[in-house]
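Hi, here's the filled form for the chain we discussed.

Project: internal
Contact: R.S.
Residues: 227
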Amino acid sequence: MTRVSVGQGTTPQTWRDRAVARSLRSARERAVSRSERFIAVATELLFETGSLDFTVQELVERSQMSLRSFYQHFASKDELLLAVFEEAVGKFVEGLREATGEIDDPLEKLRLYVTSFYAAADSGNRPASSALSRYMLMLTQDQPAQLARVLEPQIALLSEIVEAGVAAGSLRGDIPPGALTLLVTQTVMSAVEMKALGAHLVGDGLTAEQLWDFCTGGVTGKLRAPG
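And the returned structure, exactly as it came back:
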């Protein structure tokens, strides 16, 4: 008879334990796969229509899955939209983290962070960016805790850049890093929202470099000489 060797300090598993574990793992993988399918189709509809006003029925028909399956994975359309927004933010921040990771100078990292976020409002599908910006404003008012959770990777990346900049002496040290992170976040996100919504209150709006010039003075305490 073959004997199963069990490491010291581990609890032996019966065949029932192993069967249940495999079953749960398989069920989880199916749930994630189907959830990702709904999110992918919702994202397709967003980019095709520039709107988040599609119906659950439209989503179900496009995904070729059932209405029952949808409600097994999402309690409502609002929960799905939150997942779509979370995926969009996560993928963008993942790419930005990779790009900033190739730069050594903290100030240059911060410049790339600021200008990339601002330029993102113009990249790809402008109506889709506008729809996501409107959705973010809605979360700001109705679900601030959920918005904070979704933006956590974005804030974490900025915080790392700012803390490194303060430690290196590239950024001002008279304002705590946490406060600097908050100030940059509020400045950049407000500018991005206004741009995505096309709400230019004065003139034709900002360029990414103009926004960075403004932020430079704030985070370093120095004004860049005109030239």
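Let me know if anything looks off before we file it.
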